[in-house]
Amino acid sequence: MNLLVTGGSGFIGSNFIRHMLNKYPGYRIINLDKLTYAGNPANLRDIENYPRYGFVRGDILEEAVVDVVMSRRPDAIVHFAAQSHVDRSIHSAHDFVRTNIVGTHVLLEAAKKYKIERFVHISTDEVYGSTDEGPFRETDILKPSSPYASSKAASDLLAFSFFKTFNLPVVITRSSNNFGPYQYPEKFISLAITNLIEDKKIPLYGDGRNVRDWLYVLDNCEAIDTVLHKGREGEVYNVGGGNEYPNIDIVTMLLDELGKDESYIEYVEDRPGHDRRYAVDTTKIREEFGWQPKRSFREALRDKIAWYQNNEDWWRPIKSGEFLDYYGKQYQNI
Ligand code: NAD
Ligand code: DAU
After folding, report:
1. Positions marked catalytic
2. By C-alpha distance, which of 189, 333, 169, 295 is closest to 252?
3. pLDDT, mean over the chain
4. Whose CA is nearest to atom 13 of ligand 2?
5. Residues in CB range of 329: below 8 A, 6 or more apart
6. Which residues line ligand 1 (CB under 6 A)?
7. Do 213 and 242 meet the contact criterion of CB atoms below 8 Å apart?
8. Are strands 170-175 and 202-205 parallel, antiparallel or unpaired?
9. I want to staple 4 with a disulfide (CB 3.0 to 4.6 A). Which of 74, 123, 240, 321 is the partner?
10. Does CATH number 3.20.10.10 belong to domain 180-212+243-270+294-318?
11. Where are the domains of the chain?
């Protein structure tokens, strides 16, 4: 299979590309990534010279660039490229609307033109909004809170419309909060671990009791792999780790693992519109395909801590701001 992966230099995309190339010796992958602040070639350094892997630096908003890549006739698209951080979308929604909605539209049009056999759209549990009660099912209404979540919900609906109207073979995954190696240190667990290593405090929003369901990134990669091959066209598949914890409990675990006390917690002003709890019902993907997360939360969390301890040369330049200058000079647009 020839795959086009968008956003493959980011956190989940890079883990997915490594997973696919190692698992399927016959597969070829082209990674189309703009290398925004979140895209990092170092995420794929170990495999960048594989003959079955190709990288194109380009923007999904640029139709001509997408057309060049699509003219190589990939069998399927796995679409990760997005602006992904909620706090940034609250600060400015502009890039979120452009990349997440308009960029997805550009890809859908190209997929239609080249009669793609499969379009896997990577969405999020945030499109359902917050819940104090049961978990959301795939058929529940969308009630996103942040500009980020709204832009993802809009892209889901657009993708659906291309399935309904043009029979484009779209499949959507909506996963809960991922964690694992190569996650940009603006996201909660990555920020918390790296702050503790730097002997800094962890900023905890509001009362610290917002709940997220944590999913190890390689379990998500397995789910996306499964949906790519077996997912039914026009369907949504929720993907969750079954690891719901209030943020304060995550902090307590990290303090415990890293030998720090509660003085390293700093309660700060809450995020505007902060969703209280995300929860997804994953019965569908479990019953249709037998997918389930393999890693226990605590074991995967320890692995993640060890990865950040052993890869300071990956995250320190990002936190210090050196990263953008360096890579800005190294890569050219096509
Ligand atoms: P990320 O921010 O780490 O990576 C995003 C990647 O997309 C980067 O490599 C970036 O350079 C690239 N990109 C951004 N704009 C682009 C553009 N215009 N053209 C080409 N490339 C562009 O994100 P992530 O955490 O890996 O998330 C990947 C996808 O999964 C996103 O669609 C996100 O909404 C979704 N998702 C993430 C999570 C999570 O917990 N991280 C959970 C559910 C869903
Ligand atoms: O649910 C899936 C979503 O998970 C993805 O779609 C998003 O791309 C991804 O960024 C993530 O969104 P969240 O907003 O849930 O993740 P974040 O890591 O920003 O925050 C997790 C929780 O931790 C949330 O309740 C806010 C809180 N938080 C976050 C940061 C960055 C803090 O208390 N302090 C912080 O400094």
Report:
1. 125-126, 148
2. 189
3. 95
4. 86
5. none
6. 6-7, 9-13, 33-36, 38-39, 59-61, 80-82, 84, 99, 103, 122, 124, 152, 175, 177-178, 184
7. yes
8. unpaired
9. 74
10. no
11. 2-178+216-239, 180-212+243-270+294-318
Measured in Å, residue 332 CA sits from the centre of ligand 2 at 32
| Lateral strand order in the sheet of 211-216 | 177-179, 211-216, 244-246
Q: In this structure, which ligand is nearest to the CA of 209? A: 2
User: Each residue of 216-267: pLDDT tens digit?
Assistant: 999 999 999 999 999 999 999 999 999 999 999 999 999 999 999 999 999 9
Cβ proximity of 19 and 222 under 8 Å:
yes
pTM above the 0.85 mark?
yes
**Would you tell me how many other CB atoms lie within 10 Å of the CB of residue 186?**
16
Residue nearest to atom 8 of ligand 2 (CA): 84
Q: Are strands 211-216 and 244-246 parallel, antiparallel or unpaired?
A: antiparallel
Which residues' Cβ are closer than 6 Å to ligand 2?
Answer: 84-86, 124-126, 176-177, 187-188, 191, 203-205, 210, 212, 247, 271, 278
Closest CA relative to residue 285, chosen from 153, 127, 138: 138
Per CATH, the homologous superfamily of domain 2-178+216-239 is: NAD(P)-binding Rossmann-like Domain (3.40.50.720)
CA dist 104 and 79 (Å) reads: 8
